Amino acid sequence: MLCKSLRLLPVLMLLVYGTLASANQLSSSAKGINKANAPVPTPLLNGKKVFISFDPSDVLAFPSVYSGGPERAYSEFFADMKQWGRYEIVLDPKDADLVFSIRFVEGHDLLWPQIRVVMTEAKSNTVLWGLVEQIDGAVFKKHRDQAFSNSIMKMVDDIQELLAPGAAQPFPFPEAGKTRLSDQ
Questions:
Q1: Which of 36, 110, 120, 168 has the lowest tally of Cβ within 10 angstroms?
Q2: Among 25-34, 156-165, 175-184, the range of highest mean pLDDT
Q3: Backbone phi and psi for residue 150, each to the nearest 5 degrees, phi listed first
């Protein structure tokens, strides 16, 4: 009986601590995209072609914490950006105006894992902008998978909001209880 109770302790700590911690670690969208109204670099606004780069992720969370593998953030972001249709997605960085590098990050003194995107001008290799979305905690794997996918969709929303403040249409979230990974 004591062993079973001790096994539940980390889950209870996650629930209690996670609720308190989520208020302290906000994502780009929660803080307000470009709240300071800084000028958005012209290449981001005028770019037509994007190469999506896979920045190798922290691999320890896969497949035990989240379904799929380290390339999951890249795969979902690629599909969502393609569905949005704002940019032509190219498969060779030489053909691109912009490079969007996506990475899943966990640990490193973070309370929650994050999805990070760095936007770079392809020709000059100049970093133009960066965004972050936290992945909310959940006890069950299917809910963690949903939170992961939601964070990717929020990232696309963040990019839409950055490029056209107030004009972005929220990315269509899947039906409650369904994760895109399990739908495949």
A1: 36
A2: 156-165
A3: -60, -40
pTM score, whole prediction: 0.75
DSSP state of 19: H
Q: Which helix (H) or strand (E) holds 80?
A: helix 72-84
Q: What are phi and psi of 116, to 5 degrees?
A: -125, 140
Q: Which residue has the higher pLDDT, 171 or 94?
A: 94
Per DSSP bridges, beta strands 49-54 and 127-134 are unpaired
Amino acid at 137: G
For the chain, domains (ranges, CATH) are: 2-183 (3.40.50)
Helix, strand or coil, per DSSP, at residue 119: strand
Task: Enumerate residues 6+ apart whose C-beta is below 8 A from 125.
Answer: none
Amino acid at 71: E
Q: Which of 95, 105, 100 is nearest to 66 (CA)?
A: 105
